[in-house]
Amino acid sequence: MSANDPNHVKQIIRNFINDSINIDTLGDDENLFESGLINSLFAVQLMTFIERKFGFEISMDDLDIENFKSISATAAFVAQKSARQGNPNVSLQK
Amino acid sequence: MKLWSVEPEEENKSKGSHEKPEHHSDHEIALEKGSIMNLKTIGVIGIGNIGSGLVVDLVLHGINVIAVDVSEKSLETARNNILQTARLAPMFTKNVPKLTRDQILSRITFTTNLDEVPVCEFIVENVTEDWNIKKPIYERLDRIAPAGVCFGANTSCISITRISSATNRPDKVVGMHFMNPVHMMSTVEVIRSDRTSAETLVAVNHLLTQLKKEAIVVGDLPGFVSNRISHLFMNEAAFVFQDGIATADQIDLIFKKCFGHKMGPLETADLIGLDTVVRSLDVLYDSFQDLKFRCCPLLRKMVDAGHYGRKSGRGFHVYPNPEG
User: Fold this and answer.
1) Which domains does chain A have, with CATH numbers?
2) Which of B82, B113, B115, B182 falls between 20 and 30 A from A85, CA-CA?
3) What is the DSSP letter of B309?
4) What is the model's pTM?
């Protein structure tokens, strides 16, 4: 299991969001912010979860809402970040 | 629960630390001259939910903070929350700097020792909404802080006049009701007691100007404007939920989608903390002796069960644990 398996990462992120938001369907490309599904308070929780789950720190250069606007965008960010760290198969943290 | 220590440190007892220092800060001198001077160090007493939010806002605006809380565990929890919120704030808030962990931490002194705050030019208190906890803290602050330092009471409901009576500087005590998330809110409800001086309001204005916020100054009765009204909404929403005529989601959605509010009353209660909401309702009920402020039994039961809202992971809604 690795952070560069997009479907697995998407499922982890989807599960985290679904634990908080009562929603029947959440598309991979649905804009989480524009749709009003999540607010800035929850976004901080989501980003904290991503850091801990995937074992890296979101840097100042990463603070772009485009990186987290949807489940797909967030999964792509996780993969890119893991690769950038030179460890594309970074294990998911328990 | 660890209690606040308001006794002087042993080493200070022999130094007569009960006497007010004669020292006049640059800020006091500037106030006397009527000039505006940026505040450099603010004391924040109580860094739970709202206190942590205030520390984030101060740090984002380049102000140093002495952050005091009751235990090392409380400080550790607050430190983590402050770091995450301050680091990620530029994503959602325009015109705030991107700061590293080290830059954030370099601006904050975390301590359990109230005696470290006399170096501050202004002190904001945010401790638990309980007069028996607040009163000895104000008595102690009054003894140790320089005479010109103003105290901002970030209380939910307790009258500022009552708080000021615990000090020998009632003219320098003012209500400052910050809202969460502090760094995203442009306005603060400022409460002027019958004894708050015009100079103190000027000092408040200096601080809020630095934070790029404005004040709405109101008079003093328990709950002021915001909480006297909002807690009726939250309490009645809890009654509606208790009566089973709507789900928590439905209640909040009606406020968001029909009234255009950003958050519904139950979400707001969860954000404030249900324990704080109950304490505030109790203060309002005790103060006005009016049945309209009686606390919803379900609300009190949820607090008894440890369901405090967002900070405990469960209230009217469920909040996932980021550690998960």
Assistant:
1) 6-84 (1.10.1200.10)
2) B82
3) B
4) 0.84
